[in-house]
TrEMBL record:
This is Aromatic hydrocarbon degradation protein. The keyword Membrane applies. The keyword Kinase does not apply. It is a multi-pass membrane protein.
Length: 418
């Protein structure tokens, strides 16, 4: 009976540690990914009302009606994050992130004058946060990774020369890995490592519209539905040799499950074509991160039952605003530039180092070379996140201090027109 009570207690302790683990990846609020094309990155993603590539599948499927023939695009973005932490007592820590490579594949085909189809395979959400195993916030998070793959078939219809509509299905696959330390010093035991891995799949939809208000002015809008993903996985533990044998009994490998609702997203833009060579677009993006209100994790305990616990997240919806321009120097060369400002969804009461998000400024430049049926786009972005402080909140005084973040983004994509 006493062993059962101890087991139940330690399962609760484990749940608290799991609930404090989350994660993040760059270029959007929360852990959305919008690095879907080097051409779009060069314009700070101001490509909802105009586009000349099949990545329109992601940004606005209605734009597929503007693409002639069959086009295929592949691309990737190198994301180099840097995160620094300074505790209230002066202790410092650096995030041990490596490079990340969210990648994409798009293909489009035009059927006659009015119908088009497209397919995209890309990373729509993701994150990566890696801290030292002995840093002050290790009981909240040491390593957090989420990877998603979105398979997005789409259809587009040109209702009239000035109105087009597109829609698609989103099939999302998700993998997660969350690591942190568990503090057992109260019981005279050493720290143990904890890792939760899981996966899930779900489906949603996207839609878009393109209105050519005049020969020079276009309006575009696109919507992606929220997607609820049920995640099944397991928790396992790294128990040092110095721990008592009882710890291995209390922390066996166990099955677990959770769920996350990825937010609905809305984008809109106005594009103006000053000349045949010069286009500029201003736009906005809304992400409803209020879908991430809480995190519930359920673990199967060592005696066959289940124990669940809840932790509030209370994230809120965010807005981002962008402006981008593209100028074609000649038939071979184009240059691009853009700026984006984005809000972060995390309130002070639930801010924690697994997702050290803050309001962001993105500055971008890009270029594009065309040769016969090939088009190569290169882009660079510098994402500066405003400094953020953590004070005692839901997570207590753990990892209190100042957080500084920035990212370098290098995008490349190659498009072939058949």
């Amino acid at each position: 009976m006493r062993l059962f009570v101890f087991r139940a207690f330690f399962i609760q302790l484990l749940l608290v540690a799991c609930l404090f683990s989350s994660a993040r990846h760059g270029f959007a609020s929360g852990f959305g990914i919008f690095t879907q094309s080097a051409d779009a990155l060069g314009q700070a993603n101001a490509t909802t009302a105009h586009s000349d590539g099949p990545s329109a599948v992601f940004f606005n499927p209605a734009l597929l009606t503007e693409l002639p023939g069959t086009q295929l695009e592949i691309g990737t973005t190198v994301i180099l994050p840097s995160r620094d932490f300074k505790a209230e007592d002066g202790t410092t820590a650096d995030n041990r992130d490596t490079a990340y490579f969210p990648s994409s594949f798009y293909v489009s085909h035009q059927f006659g004058d009015r119908f088009s189809a497209g397919l995209g395979v890309f990373n729509s959400f993701g994150l990566g946060t890696v801290w030292d195993s002995d840093w002050p916030g290790r009981f909240i998070a040491t390593k957090s990774r989420i990877t998603t793959f979105n398979i997005n078939p789409t259809l587009a219809w040109q209702l009239s020369p000035r109105i087009s509509f597109g829609a698609g299905l989103n099939i999302l696959l998700l993998d997660a890995k969350l690591k942190n330390k568990v503090d057992l010093s109260t019981f005279g035991e050493p720290e143990i490592g904890q890792q939760f891995t899981g996966s899930g799949e779900a489906a949603g939809f996207n839609a878009g519209i393109l209105l050519k208000l005049t020969d020079e002015l276009s309006f575009g809008a696109a919507y992606r539905s929220e997607i609820k993903v049920d995640i099944d996985g397991k928790a396992r533990f790294d128990i040092p040799d110095s721990a008592s044998p009882l710890i291995s009994l209390l922390f066996p490998e166990t099955r677990g499950k959770t769920a996350i609702t990825l937010p609905q997203q809305f984008t809109a833009g106005l594009a103006y074509q000053f000349t045949d060579a010069w286009t500029m677009e201003i736009g906005l993006r809304w992400e409803d991160w209020s879908s991430f209100r809480r995190l519930k994790i359920t673990l199967r305990d060592p005696v066959g039952g289940e124990t669940s616990s809840l932790a509030p997240r209370d994230w809120h919806a965010t807005w981002a605003y962008n402006i981008g321009t593209k100028y074609r120097v000649n038939d071979r060369l184009a240059i691009m530039a853009g700026y984006l400002y984005g809000e972060n969804p995390i309130p002070d009461r639930t801010f924690e180092p697994g997702v050290p998000d803050s309001d962001t400024h993105l500055f971008t430049l890009g270029t594009e070379w065309s040769l016969d049926h090939l088009k190569l786009a290169l882009a660079y972005g510098f994402q500066l996140q405003e400094d953020r402080s953590k004070r005692s909140n839901l997570y207590g005084p753990l990892a209190n201090g100042e957080y500084e973040n920035h990212l370098h983004l290098i995008g490349v994509s190659l498009t072939h027109t058949f």
